[in-house]
């Protein structure tokens, strides 16, 4: 009898009791808007920003309505406007080029390696070709590239790096937290990410001017002095009447459920990576199936795992995906002709010009991807790996 998996790939853990209690307190007092505070009260959003800045080791933090909003504000605060080219990953998710489009910028896609990170050779070529001054670097599915090499390349070319850390909250490169290399980092607290407030985003930076711009654009009106992880009033002086209000604040209810999760984040990250290592061990040595070997300098968070079926015919990959699905294992395939569920690739984003990238297409076509939610036990992860291994063997 073939084994079947019955778990749910989209089921996250329930929120901690402390989150539920904090949410209830906010609902009971009714002051959900971040600037609606009683005399002397510090709201939940201001406290979350202060705590996340400290955890991340960043000077400034702004909480917003979504990860996509964080990226959009970061791009605009970093000077991206209509017609400005923005280098970004070909292997990412739709909100990334979408954020570039939201500020009128023009995504320039950079290729992906078999290690599932940005191709630095292609990046150098596209910098030379386009003269772009901005890189929106998506640490897609938690894979972190050689950040010293990337920063050397970008620093030398005068490129501002905006990091999309939606999948690397809690990860490190060579001991440095993901998001601490570039000029600004953006995080998501949407349900499927490392902290869960349904929707939500965080932006961190050490750049006072960028932080002040982002705070004003998020919709602070003239209440920015209520922040506790924002620059001082001098940073706002010349900007307060210049920046448009693009309402995208976080509210106290979401911040209230996030603060207890932040306290447990390091433990959650370790639990994800433990699950990843079990799945990885079960997938090792399967003929025709390539694992992504994680670089020594990368301390990743294993909240998802990818395997590659390189150079196999589409029909064969589709058969593996269907075989796994029939046994309860849902794999997302980046080679599907049409976008499916949350999964799409650069070819599908028709609003952005993209020259074909054959080397990247070969990799994208091979990627099978799945989440490892913390509701899965280690035994679940071992079972999932056995099912994929059997189906891939055919
Ligand atoms: C989820 C996600 C985002 C955007 O986050 P939202 O909070 O959903 O707007 C950005 N980049 C990547 C890679 C993501 O997975």
Describe the structure.
By secondary structure, this protein is an alpha/beta fold. The protein folds into two domains: 17-263, Type I PLP-dependent aspartate aminotransferase-like (Major domain) (Aspartate Aminotransferase, domain 2), CATH 3.40.640.10; 265-393, Alpha-Beta Complex (Aspartate Aminotransferase, domain 1), CATH 3.90.1150.10. Helices cover 38% and strands 14% of the residues. The chain contains 13 helices and 14 strands. The strands form three sheets. It has a seven-stranded mixed sheet, with helices on both faces. The longest helix is centred in the C-terminal third of the chain and has 19 residues, at 265-283. The protein is globular and about 65 Å long. The relative contact order is 0.18. Residues 66-68, 92-93, 95-96, 138, 140, 164, 166-167, 188, 190, 201 line the site of pyridoxal-5'-phosphate.
